[in-house]
């Protein structure tokens, strides 16, 4: 079922089953913000709800989950339950066990990735939306109107605002629309803690982050003036005592160079497993590049994993980006 908010609201209201809220691997602001907002909402509606994620949030988002009990899949023992998958464009990237996915009564998918194939029993997908948090916001506003109740409180507003500002780069990226500013205005009026969010997300990087950044910038490589890449090895992470999930903020340094169209961050998770983050500026659809490596994402921001050495992964992804740029130029 595609893009039917009313059907989702009707199901949420009528179901007496438990709910699991979850998202994609390698959590980010939209991931955490949308899942927490939905968790708090279902709690307010009197539902039994569990936040399940088999990964750890990055340091700059831990302020959102300080009082939250995030479960791992092995801690969950439920008979009849539904899954709400938020900000997860691919069923295979859901950050819970396959057993939980297979045994769910229904899957509700709320997402804004272009690569989403409508894998849910209920789907609310809008690839033009700034963030999944914007879709959750739309759903909650509609729920409030239909049921004549107030749902969005200070906690929910703070979660939704976090996802909005992180996925829009604090309203800088091309996915920022008039609706994004309208949403921000409404969330602020409902108590979203803007100053706390900005300080925690953008202004509280640990000292070790900057030590790693200095080392990472020494790997900066520019190809044909159009492609820039930075490489982070597992040894660099270990040497600088910083976790894999805490360095995605380095990605924009690849894109934000004059003349560069596509930026690439390569992060070595373990031997022969490299996460690739792709960013483009004007015309290259990086989601197509990511999809060719079984990844996905958005036109201007996407990612994938290459199971090879970091040197080979760099060679493969740069070659794919070169072809994409040449193809776009010829069109």
UniProtKB/TrEMBL annotation:
EC code(s) of this entry: 6.1.1.7
Tell me which residues make up the DHHA1 domain.
Answer: 251-325
User: Which Gene3D superfamilies has this protein been placed in?
Assistant: 3.10.310.30, inorganic pyrophosphatase (n-terminal core) (3.90.1640.10)
- Pfam families attached here? DHH, DHHA1
Q: Domain (DDH): give its ranges.
A: 19-163
Please provide the record's keywords in A-Z order: Ligase
Per the record, the domain of life is Bacteria
Cite the GO molecular-function annotations of the record: alanine-tRNA ligase activity; nucleic acid binding
Q: What class of enzyme is it?
A: ligase
Q: What is this protein called?
A: DHH/DHHA1 domain-containing protein
């Amino acid at each position: 079922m595609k893009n039917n908010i009313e059907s989702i609201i009707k199901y949420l209201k009528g179901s007496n089953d438990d709910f699991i809220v979850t998202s994609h691997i390698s959590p980010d602001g939209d991931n955490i913000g949308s899942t927490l907002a939905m968790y708090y909402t279902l709690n307010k509606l009197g539902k039994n709800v569990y936040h399940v994620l088999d990964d750890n949030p990055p340091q700059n988002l831990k302020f959102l989950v300080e009082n939250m009990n995030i479960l791992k899949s092995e801690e969950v023992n439920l008979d009849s339950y539904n899954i709400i998958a938020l900000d997860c464009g691919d069923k295979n990237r859901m950050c819970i066990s396959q057993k939980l996915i297979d045994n769910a009564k229904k899957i509700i998918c709320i997402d804004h990735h272009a690569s989403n194939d409508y894998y849910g029993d209920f789907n609310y997908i809008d690839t033009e939306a700034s963030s999944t948090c914007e879709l959750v916001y739309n759903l909650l506003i509609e729920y409030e109107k239909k049921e004549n109740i107030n749902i969005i409180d200070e906690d929910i507003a703070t979660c939704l605002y976090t996802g909005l500002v992180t996925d829009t780069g604090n309203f800088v990226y091309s996915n920022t629309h008039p609706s994004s500013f309208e949403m921000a205005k409404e969330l602020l009026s409902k108590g979203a803690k803007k100053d706390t969010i900005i300080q925690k997300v953008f202004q509280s990087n640990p000292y070790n982050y900057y030590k790693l950044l200095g080392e990472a910038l020494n790997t900066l490589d520019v190809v044909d003036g159009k492609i820039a890449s930075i490489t982070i090895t597992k040894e660099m992470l270990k040497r600088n005592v910083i976790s894999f999930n805490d360095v995605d903020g380095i990605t924009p340094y690849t894109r934000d160079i004059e003349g560069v169209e596509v930026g690439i961050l390569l992060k070595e998770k373990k031997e022969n497993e490299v996460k690739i983050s792709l960013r483009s500026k004007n015309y290259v659809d990086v989601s197509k590049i990511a999809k060719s490596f079984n990844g996905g994402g958005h036109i201007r921001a996407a990612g994938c994993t290459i199971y090879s050495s970091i040197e080979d992964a760099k060679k493969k992804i740069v070659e794919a980006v070169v072809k994409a740029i040449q193809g776009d130029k010829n069109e």
